[in-house]
Amino acid sequence: MRVLRLALRRLAASLPTLVLILVGLFLLLQLAPGDTVDALMAQMGGGDQALAEELRRFYGLDVGIAAQLGRYLMRLVTLDLGFSSIYGKPVATVILERLPATLLLMVSALSFAFFFGLVLGVVAARRVNKWPDTLISTLGLVFYATPSFWFGLMAIVLFSVYLQWLPAGGFGDITQNLTGIAAVLDIARYLVLPTLTLGLIFLAIYLRIMRASMLEVLSLDFVRTARAKGLSETRVVARHVLRNAMLPMVTLIGLQAGTMLGGSVVVESVFALPGLGRLAYESVVQRDLNTLLGIAFISAVLVICINFLVDILYARLDPRISAES
Amino acid sequence: MRALKAYCRSPAALIGTAILMAVVVMGVGATFFYPNDPLGLAGRPLQWPGANPRFPLGTDPSGRDIAAQLFHGARVSLLIGFVATSIAVMIGIAIGALSGFYGGVTDTALMRVTEAFQTLPNFLLLLVLVAVFGSTIETVTIAIGLVSWPPVARLTRAEFLTLRTRDFVQACRVQGLSDLHLIVREVLPNALPPVIVYASVVMAVAILLESALAFLQLSDPNVPSWGNLIGLGRNVLRTEWYVSAIPGVAILLTILGVSLVGQGLNDALNPRLAASR
């Protein structure tokens, strides 16, 4: 209960940050050349001044910037993100359609990176300065240096073009009407390569952090006590070291939630996944600034939510946190 | 001196330095090795590497020499990485120093702004900046600098927080030295080593951000960039995959070099940490 209250307080503290982001982005987008109406008129193939003015009135662009900002923030309270003239739907609807693919991709990439980062970090730390450690650390360095979009393309060449094991892009087979387990397995097949691509750099970061914090914790007194009790090395690592060594990694998840969302823009473009990141890219190309602002808002909310969950997880792993407050 | 010796003893640091030097030589000597416009037509399009001795790395879908683009791209990548990192480090140090030195309301306000920048995914902010200010090489470089400073600010702030209460700072304060003197001449030199080490991470991320932007064709199309070339190769990926593969290796090696140099610097400047490895 105390943990929840603590995390909720952190959540409340991030509200001003959210407002700051929105106001900043809104003002920034006012500097963009041309507005929604210009983009719309260009799409229609031009029109006269009277039509432009009428459209501006319709989209509420005929009043001052301060008034527009006020209206935007007021509408946000009711979760109304405005109207996307390119898609001809409310922005909230467009984003909601694209959100599941991104969430699925993030969860799977995070699980992949976390699990293998943990295992490889533990193995490297237990064989420190021997060949498994050198191999894993070198792999970590190379993975860290690999541009994700390039890795994705090369994975497509190898696994989709030559070996033909996995699909090169898309999100599920639309030619067959699959349901139930078959549909889930089908989507999973399409998610394998994007997950590896997005997760690779985080795997590299996690294994490095895990190795360092394992080495740190292994040198502490309570580990010596545990060993002196006669516990086997596996038991010492599993019961005593792991939980403590995981703390920096958990912190990192929260810190890098934003980076991961940013990375999904590129990965979703490579694999033609219908997600939020691809929507962000499309709205930049099509100058759909209303949608872009909405995506930025939702992304910030997402990052804040992930940090909220991380706070709770952290407190569960480290009882000192809830005892202190 | 001791730090330099420690740096030279680490094989990883030396490999990193060698890779980075090679990339620098490629970039600096680009006009010497390939005096012609790297974006100009050079020969028949899509020749495989080795098929024609004139083009050791082949030609791209528009018949441009890939090796020439690789050399000129090294210059662009290093330049963008260096300038964007400088911008990020300068903003980060300024904000972190003010925040850590003065504390109180200044600290709260500046940290709120930093938090806002960290909450918003930086690639998304980069997209917004490019959408608003266009994608010439100058705007892209500045935009990358603008999205990369928050970690530097946090690091500088943390250093300043521990340093400002030290005796030598208090002694200077008693002597009546100005705040500016205290920040720039007394505290900053002591806070700098970890920031310099972190600059290598910023540079690696900056190069990756630019190449990702160029890959999405949202960077300057009029400069030869590795990311651009990977993006162009995407259209012929199924058959002529070497067009995308070659510049990717160049990016990978450059980032690897930068990271190894950063790691070497870290080990050399923090001997306590190096000993425990």
Automatic annotation (TrEMBL), chain A:
Keywords noted in UniProt: Cell membrane, Membrane, Transmembrane, Transmembrane helix, Transport
Name of the protein described by the UniProt record: ABC transporter permease
SUPFAM superfamilies in alphabetical order: MetI-like
Family classification: Belongs to the binding-protein-dependent transport system permease family.
GO biological process per UniProt: transmembrane transport
TM annotation in the entry: 103-123, 135-163, 187-207, 249-272, 292-315
Membrane topology: Multi-pass membrane protein
GO cellular component: plasma membrane
CDD domains on file: TM_PBP2
Pfam families in the record: BPD_transp_1 (PF00528)
Domain ABC transmembrane type-1: 99-314
Annotated organism of origin: Neoroseomonas oryzicola
Localization terms from the record: Cell membrane
InterPro entries: MetI-like, MetI-like_sf
UniProtKB/TrEMBL annotation, chain B:
Mode of membrane association: Multi-pass membrane protein
Keyword entries, A-Z: Cell membrane, Membrane, Peptide transport, Protein transport, Transmembrane, Transmembrane helix, Transport
Transmembrane segments: 12-34, 78-102, 123-147, 195-218, 239-261
Domain ABC transmembrane type-1, residue spans: 74-262
PROSITE patterns, per database record: ABC_TM1
Gene3D superfamilies from the UniProt entry: MetI-like
InterPro entries (alphabetical): BP-dependent_transpt_permease (IPR050366), MetI-like (IPR000515), MetI-like_sf (IPR035906)
Any single biological process term in GO: transmembrane transport
Family in the record: Belongs to the binding-protein-dependent transport system permease family.
Protein's UniProt name: ABC transporter permease
The species this protein was found in: Neoroseomonas oryzicola
The organism's taxonomic lineage, starting at the top: Bacteria, Pseudomonadati, Pseudomonadota, Alphaproteobacteria, Acetobacterales
